């Protein structure tokens, strides 16, 4: 029974996609019910797999149409779910469910919502299929559906010229990536005469040929495009900005996680190339470039969503760096950061969406003082911002710590100075991330409220709910990091290092042993930097201090809402004695000193992001060529 | 006990905010002289702050020109309690040589309660020191009154 | 000789990439993407082709019992190619429709003019 | 239960909140006194920062209309808590309250929090002066973070436990075995860099662009009054102690008498020396920098020093 769950979850989403188009294009209630039901049921189906796979350690394999392997050769399309798949599937499910809830209120003023939900469900289904499948070509098909749906959703608000332009760029770069993946898959088939990942893994174990090296290079490039590492990131920034925010959240929460998943699955499981120092160095360098360029571009943005888009790119840099290290700690950190990225970046996109919904703009120079109008959104935003900057009680801290620890341990072990420099970059990027979120905090949520936003209202509850859920998850993942590591990360890490079980349950007992695949048991990461007790005591201190202040501080806050005190100069902002007036330090004015010192760098960088689709494609193709060449030169 | 400590320390650390309401700069220079090594008001804890929100003692110099009057009153309102107002030099007290001018609205007492007046054109730094010290004592009295 | 296929497919891929990178006209960019697709498809078909092989139409049991001749053209790549052609066609249609919409908004299909999102 | 009581003791009294506050106020007082003496003044009594704090507690707290009340009042507490926590991770020679394998990262991030608290608090007050102030504060933070990180990595590499790369305890043990870090000549540039990082982190004179009282009315603190302001002042005093303590345990460790009390006294004396050396002296002899000069200074000169040390250490020196 349970082995039908994964495929049912995928099928259900695709089925619902068509049902929405048939029945729901006119009626909003039917549409919402179908979409939400499908999302919920398929999420429940996936969550039902948690016990057998993550806790009992089973691997579920499923053959489409019962085309089981014949004499050790896989001939059908197989779905295979181990802890690694399921980890990503859970992220995907959580993301599309929350996004679906959020969409209902957020999108209700748009037209053609039938198409929206169709595409949304297709996107969800394809990403879910991508992470659950055990077949390389099926993976490619899912990537294509994903790209197709993403492009259509990016250009969904097609009355905006930006959306169309972003959709087109996304399509071009995305297709280049898909073509590379397809070429890689083709070469892999030519080498192994099978498309099943487990079998390819068994065949390729320890026997890399030039063809498979080429295939690995192409596939890394292909998934690099899907996870938007620099220099493939250019369309991502545009697409995240212009897509409806519920979709931006899906993009950063699951579409680029699909790329990360593909990268891990291919490098760790299928090719088992994670112990090759050239692959490690390549991924780490690309990751470092991604995080640095992403964050420095984000610092100059003055559009809320575009800023978040560049941060999304930057955080994926951390993930790629961490998984590129090929060590257990690195992969744990990478997976944890991927999960945290889904949580906090989804949360931040939702708050951006809430700001857009409430004020009609995401331009940071035009908003301000929203924290008094939208307290829930502001609180959620702060949680997300602190999480992404890695401040201690939140989840970003634990995962970033693992990334640094893995990087610097590797640097000390291998004596390679490059890794030490990457550690420095990672630490600096963290503070720059904080800086750009401070910019948003100051210019959107704090500061002064412009006159035209005086009537701003908090968003409806169905939009608040996903934000609150994600904020709570952010804090919980930071506090109960040990449970997360034990029940989610460690099984996934074990699954990606130990493929015997994966291969055996797919192809048949003994295949792995015959191919010479071995198991290395990975122990849970030993955390010792955190003692929840300390925090408990600290809260006591805080309350004691607050009590002290309340007792002796003589708080004298007038009731500012009353008319006579509203004009009381005592509670007005200090303007060197002038009458209070609107004066907001807007987003683009912040960090002037920094930008002045970095003028030359920004000139080059902004020049590279020139918006020309030809230049973007050239960058992408050159990078792909570099990846393939590096593979060839250094893998031998 | 803590209350006594608070009362005592309000005298020991009076922070000054200085408002120039059209002064000729003579008094301003003398006020700065008070903080220089020769007179060193910091040994009593005096410190110049940049914003009225931090201030305990507001030092007003100049004859209150009509342009600055509104700003002066608004800034004085923004100082948290307990606070002391010190008028520095003869100008804020009487208008001095500017008295009778169409643009001078001199006595500061018309707008706000002045606790200490330091007379002179310009007052000597020693006089300013004494005035500020008296203001600090008044500050402590006000602080004690706040508890009742 | 079958190597001609591989040379041709690589040539098509390179040509497609060249078109995507160098041609300013968005429609030509879309054509370039198509050409890349065809190149990759040709690569896949060539992988499964065995010169002189027969058509792969057998029962599984025949194959296992050794009744059927074992030298045949691999059917899987052909299936893959079909799938990939269909997907490619969809993507091209989508891209062209986007170009049409872009032309309406921007009054141009020149890549140098369709770049309002940058920096 | 016993464990909890010990934790409580660590957090509340030694080396947590109370100890940090006491030594922080002491250091701040000494700093003011030394600066005054250097300028040939008599200067305030050493207990002056305590008076300032108590006075501010006794004053009225005004919350401006434009401010977000929760963030405005909560920010200084958050900063206080994180500063009280940092001392738990810094070894006082042989003694660490919570010995862990990742102290450095924890310390690095916890030291960021008071700055963030200042920024969030200032930002929430809605004043444009605060807006400019937080911008400068953030740029300062980015400026000193690079040399700071480089120094930490240098020390971590020198002390060299591979699996305990970021452990402060490992560094303390290494110094106990091999003598203070400062006596390794390859570490001297890093030590100088660290001495220059401290004033920017604390925000004393040449690097106090964020709180420039004469040009932007105390920057982020412009709207603060009363108890929250007092807490912010207390935070900056505590930061003084925490940063100099970090310097002492990174570079001047290795002294172990076996008695925690004597250790602590020596530790505090060393902290005073560091404070006088890197904060009071520089404060007394220099004028405020401009923000872009500050950034350039840290990313070229100071980071260069730290990088030189890192490369030397990486070469095995």
Q: Can you walk through the features of this model?
A:
The complex is a heterotetramer of chains A (636), B (148), C (119) and D (317). With 636 residues, chain A is mainly alpha-helical. In chain A, 71% of the residues lie in helices and 1% in strands. Chain A has a two-stranded antiparallel sheet. In chain A, α5 packs antiparallel against α6. Chain A starts with a helix and ends with a helix. Chain B has 148 residues and is of the alpha/beta class. Chain B has helices spanning 2-12, 26-34, 66-77, 91-94, 125-147, and strands spanning 15-20, 47-48, 57-61, 84-88, 116-118. The mean pLDDT of chain B is 84. By secondary structure, chain C is mainly α. In chain C, α2 packs antiparallel against α4. Chain C contains four helices and no strands. With 317 residues, chain D is mainly alpha-helical. Chain D has one domain (12-314). In chain D, α2 packs parallel to α11 (260-285). The model of chain D has no long low-confidence stretch (mean pLDDT 82). Chains A and D meet through α15, α16, α17, α22 and α24 of A and α1, α4, α5, α6 and α10 of D.
Structural topology:
The complex is a heterotetramer of chains A (about 625), B (about 150), C (about 120) and D (about 325).
Chain B: H1 2-12, E1 15-20, H2 26-34, E2 47-48, E3 57-61, H3 66-77, E4 84-88, H4 91-94, E5 116-118, H5 125-147
Chain C: H1 3-22, H2 26-48, H3 60-65, H4 75-106
Chain D: H1 2-12, H2 17-38, H3 48-57, H4 69-89, H5 103-124, H6 128-159, H7 168-178, H8 188-202, H9 213-216, H10 226-251, H11 260-285, H12 291-314
Helix pairs in contact in D: 2-4, 2-10, 2-11, 3-10, 4-5, 4-10, 5-6, 6-7, 6-8, 6-12, 8-10, 8-11, 8-12, 10-11
């Amino acid at each position: 029974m349970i082995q039908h769950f994964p495929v049912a979850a995928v099928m259900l989403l695709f089925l619902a996609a068509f049902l929405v188009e048939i029945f729901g294009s006119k009626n909003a209630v039917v549409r919402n019910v179908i979409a939400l039901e499908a999302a919920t049921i398929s999420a429940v189906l996936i969550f039902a797999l948690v016990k057998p796979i993550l806790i009992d350690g089973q691997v579920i394999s499923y053959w489409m149409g019962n085309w089981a392997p014949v004499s050790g050769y896989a001939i059908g399309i197989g779905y295979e779910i181990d802890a690694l798949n399921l980890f990503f599937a859970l992220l995907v499910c959580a993301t599309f469910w929350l996004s679906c809830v959020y969409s209902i209120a957020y999108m209700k003023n748009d037209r053609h919502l039938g198409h929206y939900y169709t595409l949304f469900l297709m996107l969800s289904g394809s990403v879910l299929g991508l992470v659950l499948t055990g077949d390389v070509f099926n993976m490619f098909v899912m990537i294509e559906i994903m790209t197709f749906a993403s492009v259509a959703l990016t250009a969904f608000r097609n009355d905006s010229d930006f959306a169309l332009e972003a959709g087109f760029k996304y399509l071009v770069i995305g297709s280049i990536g898909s073509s590379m993946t397809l070429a890689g898959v083709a070469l892999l088939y030519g080498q192994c005469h099978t498309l099943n990942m487990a079998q390819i893994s068994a065949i390729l174990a320890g026997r890399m040929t030039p063809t498979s090296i080429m295939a690995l290079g192409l596939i890394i490039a292909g998934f690099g495009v899907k996870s938007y590492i620099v220099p493939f990131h250019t369309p991502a920034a545009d697409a995240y900005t212009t897509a409806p925010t519920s979709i931006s959240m899906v993009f950063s929460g699951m579409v680029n996680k699909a790329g990360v998943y593909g990268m891990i699955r291919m490098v760790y499981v299928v090719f088992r190339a994670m112990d090759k120092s050239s692959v490690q160095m390549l991924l780490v360098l690309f990751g470092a470039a991604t995080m640095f360029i992403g964050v420095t571009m984000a610092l100059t943005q003055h559009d809320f969503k575009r800023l978040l888009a560049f941060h999304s790119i930057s955080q994926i840099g951390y993930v790629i760096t961490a998984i590129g290290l090929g060590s257990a700690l690195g992969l744990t950190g990478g997976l944890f950061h991927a999960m945290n990225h889904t949580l906090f970046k989804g949360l931040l996109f939702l708050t951006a969406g809430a700001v857009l919904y409430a004020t009609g703009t995401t331009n940071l120079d035009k908003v301000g003082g929203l924290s008094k109008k939208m307290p829930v959104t502001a609180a959620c935003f702060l949680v997300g911002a602190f999480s992404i900057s890695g401040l201690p009680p939140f989840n970003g801290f634990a995962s970033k710590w693992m990334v640094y620890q893995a990087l610097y341990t590797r640097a000390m072990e291998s004596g390679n100075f490059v890794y030490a420099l990457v550690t420095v970059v990672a630490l600096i990027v963290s503070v720059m991330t904080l800086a750009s979120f401070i910019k948003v905090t100051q210019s959107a949520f704090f500061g002064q409220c412009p006159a035209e936003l005086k009537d701003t209202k908090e968003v409806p509850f169905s939009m608040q709910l996903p934000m609150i859920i994600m904020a709570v998850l952010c804090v919980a993942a930071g506090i109960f990091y040990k449970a997360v590591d034990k029940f989610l990360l460690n099984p996934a890490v074990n699954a990606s290092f130990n493929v015997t079980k994966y291969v055996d349950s797919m192809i048949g007992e003994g295949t792995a042993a015959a191919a010479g695949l071995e198991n290395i048991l990975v122990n849970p990461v030993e955390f010792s930097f955190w003692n929840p007790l300390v925090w408990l005591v600290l809260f006591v201190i805080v309350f004691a201090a607050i009590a002290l202040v309340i007792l002796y501080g003589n708080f004298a806050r007038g009731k500012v809402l009353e008319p006579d005190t509203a004009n009381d100069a005592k509670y007005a902002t200090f303007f060197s004695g002038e009458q209070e007036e609107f004066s907001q330090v807007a987003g683009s004015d912040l960090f002037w000193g920094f930008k002045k010192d970095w003028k030359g760098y920004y000139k080059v960088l902004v020049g590279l992001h020139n918006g020309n689709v030809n230049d973007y494609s050239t960058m992408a193709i050159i990078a792909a060529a570099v990846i393939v060449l590096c593979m060839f030169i250094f893998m031998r | 006990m803590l209350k006594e400590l608070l009362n005592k320390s309000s005298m020991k650390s009076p922070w000054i905010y200085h408002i120039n309401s059209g002064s000729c700069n003579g008094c301003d220079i003398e006020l700065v002289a008070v903080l220089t090594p020769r007179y060193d008001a910091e040994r009593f804890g005096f410190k110049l702050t940049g914003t009225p929100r931090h201030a305990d003692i507001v030092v007003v110099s100049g004859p209150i020109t009509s342009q600055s009057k509104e700003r002066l009153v608004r800034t004085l309102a923004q100082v948290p309690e307990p606070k002391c107002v010190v008028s520095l030099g003869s100008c804020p007290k009487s208008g001095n040589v500017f008295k009778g001018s169409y643009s001078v609205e001199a006595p500061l007492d018309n707008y706000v309660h002045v606790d200490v007046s330091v007379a002179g054109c310009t007052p000597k730094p020693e006089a300013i020191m004494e005035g500020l010290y008296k203001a600090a004592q008044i500050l402590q009295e006000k602080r004690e009154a706040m508890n009742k | 000789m079958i190597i001609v296929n591989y040379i041709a497919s690589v040539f098509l891929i390179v040509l497609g990439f060249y078109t995507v990178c160098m041609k300013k006209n968005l429609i030509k960019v879309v054509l370039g993407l198509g050409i890349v697709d065809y190149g990759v498809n040709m690569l896949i078909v060539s992988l499964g082709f065995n010169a002189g092989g027969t058509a792969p139409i057998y029962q599984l049991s025949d194959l296992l019992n050794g009744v059927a001749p074992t030298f045949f053209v691999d059917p899987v790549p052909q299936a893959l190619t079909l799938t990939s052609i269909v997907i490619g066609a969809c993507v091209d249609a989508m891209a062209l429709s986007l170009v049409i919409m872009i032309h309406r908004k921007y009054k141009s299909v020149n890549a140098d003019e369709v770049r309002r999102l940058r920096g | 239960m016993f464990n909890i009581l010990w934790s409580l003791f660590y957090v509340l009294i030694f080396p947590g909140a109370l100890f940090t506050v006491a030594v922080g106020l002491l250091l701040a007082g000494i700093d003011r006194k030394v600066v005054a003496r250097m300028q040939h003044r008599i200067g305030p009594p050493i207990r002056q920062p305590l008076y300032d704090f108590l006075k501010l507690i006794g004053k009225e707290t005004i919350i401006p209309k434009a401010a977000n009340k929760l963030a405005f009042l909560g920010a200084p507490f958050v900063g206080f808590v994180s500063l009280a926590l940092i001392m738990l991770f810094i070894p006082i020679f042989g003694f660490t309250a919570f010995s862990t394998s990742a102290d450095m990262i924890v310390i690095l991030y916890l030291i960021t929090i008071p700055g963030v608290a200042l920024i969030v608090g200032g930002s929430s007050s809605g004043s444009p002066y605060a807006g400019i102030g937080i911008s400068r504060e953030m740029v300062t933070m980015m400026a000193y973070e690079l040399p700071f990180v480089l120094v930490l990595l240098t020390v971590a590499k020198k002390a060299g436990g591979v699996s305990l790369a970021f452990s402060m305890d490992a560094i303390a043990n290494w110094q106990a075995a091999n003598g203070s870090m400062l006596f390794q000549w390859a570490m001297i540039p890093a030590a100088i860099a660290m001495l220059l990082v401290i004033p920017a982190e604390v925000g004393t004179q040449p690097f106090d662009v964020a709180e420039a009282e004469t040009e932007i009315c105390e920057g982020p603190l412009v709207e603060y009054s009363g108890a929250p302001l007092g807490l912010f002042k207390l935070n900056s005093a505590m930061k003084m102690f925490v940063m100099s303590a970090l310097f002492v345990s990174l570079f001047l460790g290795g002294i172990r008498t076996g008695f925690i009390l004597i250790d602590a006294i020596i530790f505090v004396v060393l902290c005073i020396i560091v404070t006088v050396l890197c904060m009071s002296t520089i404060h007394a002899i220099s004028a405020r920098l401009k923000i872009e000069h500050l950034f350039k200074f840290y990313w070229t000169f100071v980071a260069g020093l730290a990088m030189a040390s890192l490369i030397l250490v990486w070469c095995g020196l």
